[in-house]
Amino acid sequence: IPLIQLKGSSVVKTVQFKNARVVGDAISTIKVFSNRMADEMIITDIEATRKKKINFSLLERMASECIMPLTIGGGVKSLADVEKLFRIGADKILINSEFYKNPNFIKKISEIYGSQSIVFSLDVIEKKSNYIPVSNSGIKIENLPLEKVLKLATKSGFGEIILNNVSRDGMMNGFDLNLIKKISKLVNIPLVATG
């Protein structure tokens, strides 16, 4: 499952969610993974929340080249955003920051489209062997214990979790197996590990 980070129309790689380095063109990258028969694809616009704007036209062009199930996230704040992303080709919607601001938003999406259609982007940082949830591309520390965040997320209606330890992002150290084990024991919905 390739996870494509967008910044403008470029695909980027980050290190601990900072220093975005351009590694390719968005459309070309989608074509490569489609030709290689990836099982699914995740696209997240890492600037959309900060810029308060979703680049629907680029995402629509990317979706038209994608031949596998597609999850799209970044800057999703309203039911109109969700509806438009589904209309342009998303199979699932990825949400992080808006969940912390408005958990009822997730309930509304789940009621309309089903829990299988919304994915929680759970980003954490590691401090002294503790995992602390973060939002806004790792900038904002959420003052909720991880266990409480997970309970609220599943109760709100998320049908899947994409898990990323920001402290390991781009470090080439492999997965945080302790974190994956911990989260998988606390939830009974599908969990996709990244980072």
Structure, described:
A hairpin with a 2-residue loop joins strand 7 (118-127) and strand 8 (130-135). Helix 1 (26-35) runs parallel beside helix 3 and helix 6 (103-113) packs parallel to helix 7 (146-156). Strands 1, 2, 3, 4, 5, 6, 7, 8, 9, 10 and 11 form an eleven-stranded mixed beta sheet that branches. The chain is an alpha/beta fold. The protein is built from eight helices and eleven strands.
Give the SSE layout.
Elements: E1 3-7, E2 10-15, E3 18-25, H1 26-35, E4 41-45, H2 48-51, H3 56-65, E5 70-73, H4 79-88, E6 92-95, H5 97-101, H6 103-113, E7 118-127, E8 130-135, E9 140-141, H7 146-156, E10 160-165, H8 177-186, E11 191-193
Helix pairs in contact: 1-3, 6-7
Describe the largest sheet.
11 strands, mixed
Kindly report how far apart the N and C termini lie. Answer: 12 Å
Structural class: alpha/beta
Q: Which percent range describes the beta-strand content?
A: 25-35%
Low-confidence segments, ≥5 residues, pLDDT <50? none
H and E string: EEEHEHHEHEHHEEEHEHE
The number of helical segments is 8
Q: How much helix, percentage-wise, in residues? A: 25-40%
Count of β-strands: 11
Q: Please, what is the average pLDDT?
A: 94
Shape: globular
Question: Rg to the nearest angstrom?
Answer: 16 Å
